[in-house]
């Protein structure tokens, strides 16, 4: 049972207690197009064992008709969720079933992306205006799979940004679609006039609205997304909600993920250094190189690992200048790591 808090969100304290529900949604890394690919997720899993990882959004058309394997991932990534883009219940159900067969832990429906390309495909944030269709999509997937099916959405779109509109959307999807988990990006989306980047920054964050949603729908699992930059901020949200999803900060400053398991999940794990994380990546890098992957496709996700550590700039520079070169391999990473060690020593 979710514990209600009467104090101000800014004054609330948080610590992991035995009676506090800790589950996969407690902390997750947001699905980010062109960023959270399988190489990124493998790297993030070296930093945190408990965090729920998400794929980039994958459209149903790509999975059903595409020539590549859009469901590829490593078993090391678990727990991992597939985020789907689409609005056809039958196609979504087919993809959800394929994902369950491949071993994914969760299916998530994108109802938050505001890009024109996504809107033209009739999925993403524009679906907030079609709550019954979203509910039908969720129900179709839930009827086909036994793993959780969740929704990631906004607090509103365009001029449909009242709290009543958000409540109506959640109620419809929860009741008709039997969805019990919502990840709420605490900004509304403008479907025209703003780029996807601007939609992540310009509409103001409204955390209290998401807190209120949890109070009004206490039986639902509600996680929050948007603007979370530190684990302390995550703790503040977790005093009110069931989960926190961190996006760009987790990608650009991945070193903070080293403390997630102990601070947010209450798991007493041996301390891991960023140096050992890099070395743990070597077997994976070697394997991927033999399969034709370019080194830079992996190391681009690792550039921010040593943020605020002496030598971080040299690490980034060496990888940026050398990882893309033909034949680049482990020696490039070892040389970059040595530049940090020399500064730290």
From TrEMBL:
Pfam families tied to this protein: Dus (PF01207)
Keyword Acyltransferase: no
Catalytic reaction equation(s): 5,6-dihydrouridine(20a) in tRNA + NADP(+) = uridine(20a) in tRNA + NADPH + H(+); 5,6-dihydrouridine(20) in tRNA + NAD(+) = uridine(20) in tRNA + NADH + H(+); 5,6-dihydrouridine(20a) in tRNA + NAD(+) = uridine(20a) in tRNA + NADH + H(+); 5,6-dihydrouridine(20) in tRNA + NADP(+) = uridine(20) in tRNA + NADPH + H(+)
Residues annotated to bind FMN: 31-33, 83, 152, 185, 225-227, 247-248
Known EC number: 1.3.1.91
Site feature Interacts with tRNA, where: 110, 197, 200, 313, 316
Keywords, ordered alphabetically: Flavoprotein, FMN, NADP, Oxidoreductase, RNA-binding, tRNA processing, tRNA-binding
Coiled coil: none
Superkingdom, taxonomy of origin: Bacteria
Chaperone among keywords: no
Cofactor(s) this protein cannot do without: FMN
Stretches assigned to the DUS-like FMN-binding domain: 29-335
Record-annotated active site: 113
InterPro entries: Aldolase_TIM, DUS-like_FMN-bd, DUS_fam, DusA, tRNA_hU_synthase_CS
A GO term, aspect molecular function: tRNA-dihydrouridine20 synthase activity
Task of the protein: Catalyzes the synthesis of 5,6-dihydrouridine (D), a modified base found in the D-loop of most tRNAs, via the reduction of the C5-C6 double bond in target uridines. Specifically modifies U20 and U20a in tRNAs.
Family matches, as HAMAP family: DusA_subfam (MF_02041)
Family membership: Belongs to the Dus family. DusA subfamily.
Descriptive protein name: tRNA-dihydrouridine(20/20a) synthase
């Amino acid at each position: 049972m979710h514990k209600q808090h009467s104090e101000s969100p800014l004054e609330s304290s948080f610590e992991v207690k035995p009676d506090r529900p800790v589950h996969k949604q407690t902390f997750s890394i947001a699905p980010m197009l062109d960023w959270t690919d399988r190489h990124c997720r493998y790297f993030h899993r070296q930093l945190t064992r408990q965090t729920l990882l998400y794929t980039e959004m994958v459209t149903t058309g790509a999975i059903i008709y595409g020539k590549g394997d859009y469901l590829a991932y490593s078993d090391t990534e678990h727990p991992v969720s597939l985020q789907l883009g689409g609005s056809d219940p039958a196609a979504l159900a087919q993809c959800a079933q394929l994902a369950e067969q491949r071993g994914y832990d969760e299916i998530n429906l994108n109802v938050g992306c505001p890009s024109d390309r996504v809107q033209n495909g009739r999925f993403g944030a524009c679906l907030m205006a079609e709550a019954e269709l979203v509910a039908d999509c969720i129900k179709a997937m839930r009827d086909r799979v036994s793993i959780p099916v969740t929704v990631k959405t906004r607090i509103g779109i365009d001029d449909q940004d009242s709290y009543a509109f958000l409540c109506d959307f959640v109620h419809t999807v929860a009741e008709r679609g039997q969805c019990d988990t919502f990840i709420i990006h605490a900004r509304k989306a403008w479907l025209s006039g703003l780029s996807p980047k601007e939609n992540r920054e310009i509409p103001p964050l409204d955390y209290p609205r998401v807190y209120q949603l949890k109070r009004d729908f206490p039986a639902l699992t509600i996680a929050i997304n948007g603007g979370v930059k530190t684990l302390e901020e995550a703790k503040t949200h977790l005093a009110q909600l069931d989960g926190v999803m961190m996006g760009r900060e987790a990608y650009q400053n991945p070193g903070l993920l080293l403390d997630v398991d102990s601070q947010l999940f209450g798991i007493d794990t041996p301390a891991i250094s960023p140096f050992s994380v890099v070395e743990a990546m070597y077997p994976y890098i070697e394997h991927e190189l033999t399969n034709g992957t370019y080194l830079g496709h992996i190391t681009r996700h690792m550039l921010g690992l040593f943020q605020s550590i002496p030598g971080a700039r040299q690490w980034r520079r060496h990888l940026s200048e050398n990882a893309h070169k033909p034949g680049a391999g482990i020696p490039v990473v070892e040389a970059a790591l040595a530049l940090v060690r020399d500064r730290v020593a």
